[in-house]
Amino acid sequence: MNNPKTHSCSNSFSPAEQAEENNLLFNRADRFVEGWYWAMPCRDLKRGQAKPLTLLGKELVLYRSQSHRVFALDGRCPHMGAALAQGAVDGDDLRCPLHRWRFDPTGHCVEIPVCGPSDSVDTIMANTQIKAWPTAEHYGMIWIWTGVCPSYPPPYVPELAGVDCDTALSYRFERRCHPNVLMINAIDAHHFNSVHNLPLEVKFEAEALNDNALCLNNMTRGGEASRFVKLIRPLYRNEVTYKMCYWYGSTGTVTLGPDCFHFHIMFALRPLPGGRTEGWTMLITPKRSVGWLINPVVLWITRQVAAYFATGDIQVFQGIRFELKTPLRADRSIGQFAQHVNRQKALMWGNWSPVI
Description:
19% of the residues lie in helices and 31% in strands. It is an alpha+beta fold. It has two domains: 7-32 and 154-348, 2-Layer Sandwich (Alpha-D-Glucose-1,6-Bisphosphate, Chain A, domain 4); 36-138, Rieske [2Fe-2S] iron-sulphur domain (Rieske Iron-sulfur Protein, 3-layer Sandwich).
């Protein structure tokens, strides 16, 4: 996997522009960005198993074929509406539990076992299809693309593009705010001091990795007056490493740590009805020649780092009603993120149709 070409990103926004853009897609419960969204951990879908999934308001069925491949289809049989998740996996295909109609991974009906003498089986099968959705297994998670053809791969850590990694799923969580709002937590420069008591000076530079991914990297050495910064500064040649990459407005990667060793965390989020969030914290590290010995320790340390940053903000984001009424200069990165989200393709909640 190669890094896509990067593009420049606007570094300014006005309150009026921000309010106008927030009405398009950012923090909207009735629409979402077309993209990759996590479905379930790979370990939870066994070979020959089918499971129901409601994702972004749409009923789906996920199944793992006898060849270990994962497929996603609309969740109801077009004959009488039976739940396909109650059906049986047949090779790479899925059979309806009611009349045993068989659908291939593309959603085409390829067999109708019981038909009357007057039925034109070939015609019925040719005109019977359910929607199939692209899937991928990545970082220990099954992902579903909500459009026709993926524009980019599932979310990844830019620093680890094309690198084989060891991963661990840390914990699943829910929050009473939209994923877009939860994502701003990591780029809110003020809150490092006010919430986490970290005396850091953080300024972000934004750069679009591609049309669906925005990188926000700290460009400062952490401040001059802080004893804490003076203590850790020998670990950094230049700026303090703190890098985010935000995919589809709902999944973010965080890279931090001294120059000699970086820790990588992914917060994979997806919207719930009413503008709420469910997500997973995922821990990532590159494979190493002695990774069987080192990487479990690295992932354990990464888990502690992720927990430190996540737990301090839980109550705030359980009660927030986000509205950026009085943006400050330090909030510039939040505005850039909102603008980036609003430039992406919007789909309607439930039917996944494009917003006109």
